[in-house]
Structure formats: structure tokens, C-alpha cells
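BUG: 3D viewer hangs when loading the predicted structure for this chain

Environment: internal workstation, default settings.
Expected: structure renders.
Actual: progress bar stalls at 90%.

Input used:
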Amino acid sequence: MTQAAAMIERIRSMPVAPYTEGGYVLRVLEVTGRLSGAVRATAIAVVQREDRRYLCAPNQSRDWVRNLLAAGNCRLAPNEPEYRAFLVEADEGAPVLDQYLGQLGRVSEEWPFEKGASIEEIAKNWDTMAVFRLEAV
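C-alpha cells produced before the viewer hung:
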């Protein structure tokens, strides 16, 4: 079993953590593959800020990001409604990304700015990253 598959299995078997303002929860993102048409699963942190839910990625070339851009809709397992995903601009997304990195740290070296970057520095690199706001369908 791959590390990614093990993480997905672990998230699916854990008690469902409630969303909390300013925090994050682990979920399994389920989105239709842009090429295969099959549902693809990815372990992901979902950030809650100002009663909205967000997904963050250091670049737009990740498969789950490209699939979500193509599909537009997704589900978060376990047992959440379908969501419409909106790629947000820097004015909305940079504070979300700052919160995400404050909570999770730099779990990837792919972020295009240094650790501890200001919101302004984050916003300067906006065109390469992805932050999605999720709205229930």
C-alpha cells in the first residue's frame, strides 16, 4: 500500500473531526479525474476561515488541482455534501494560505516563498498556487 493510500484509509477510519474556525480538519477529497472520468481520492487538509471552507495547494500542476479545475465539483469524505469549488484571488486566498501554513507548517517545499512569508509576499506568487473556496451545492 502506498503512503498516500494509507493516509486515505486512516482518514476514512478516524472519527470525523468537526470544523473549527481558524483550524483545519483532514478529509478525503473525491473529484472526477479529468482524463479517466473515474473518481480520484486525495488526503487533504480543509481550512475553515470566516465560516468558509478552503483547499490549498502550492502549485496548480498537482493532479487533484487540475481535476478540480476541470470538474468544478467535489465531495469531501466521509459524509459531506457535494461542493462547488471556486479558485479564489489573492485578496481572499492569501490570508487563508497564511492561516493554512500557520496551522500545518510547510509540509511541502514546493511553496514559492520562504517560510514565515508575509501575506504580501504570499500574494506576489499568487498565479502559481491554488486556493479553492468550497460552497455546498
